[in-house]
Design brief:
By secondary structure, the chain is mainly alpha-helical. The chain has six helices and two strands. The protein has one domain. It is globular.
């Protein structure tokens, strides 16, 4: 019974995140140009920023897997890995090049992971954690609706 309920909740979260992305200007297949702000970074710095985002997705998957298995310890461990402590993995020189809104949204993601970890241990409430995951996904959707990241052309200085 809990697995059916959890699957329904997960489906709602995924559909909500996808719908929010479309509403925020995501590509709907209508041929509209990508109007998101372009962040140009050297390849090595771009890699670090994208790696952090991929790590967010991995942690979110591990959290959802923990929820599906009713394993709140797995949820807490996965969330803790991407909490505020992980914010220091991107070097300050790279962070300094990122827009304030990008940094604010990334900070909210890290803090939300911290909160998920603490609440998973203290409350063991699957529904509460799913709600937190929906909030977390909103930050990701917002950032991806605003920004795109491209490689800086060789010899091109960051402005």
């Amino acid at each position: 019974m809990i697995h059916k309920r959890l699957k329904a909740i997960v489906a709602v979260v995924v559909l909500s995140a996808a719908s929010a992305g479309m509403a925020a200007g995501g590509n709907t297949g209508g041929g509209d140009p990508d109007t998101r702000e372009m962040l140009r970074l050297p390849p090595d710095e771009r890699h670090l920023v994208l790696l952090e985002m991929r790590n967010f997705v991995v942690a979110m998957q591990q959290i959802m897997e923990g929820l599906a298995k009713d394993d709140m310890q797995q949820v807490a461990i996965a969330a803790q890995r991407m909490g505020s402590g992980a914010a220091n993995e991107v070097p300050p020189v790279v962070v300094a090049k990122l827009p304030d809104t990008f940094k604010t949204l990334a900070g909210k993601v890290h803090v939300t992971f911290d909160t998920i970890a603490l609440d998973a241990e203290a409350m063991s409430d699957i529904g509460h954690t799913v709600g937190q995951m929906a909030e977390l996904a909103q930050f990701c959707v917002a950032c991806h609706a605003i920004y795109q990241i491209d490689r800086e052309a060789p010899g091109m200085a960051q402005q």
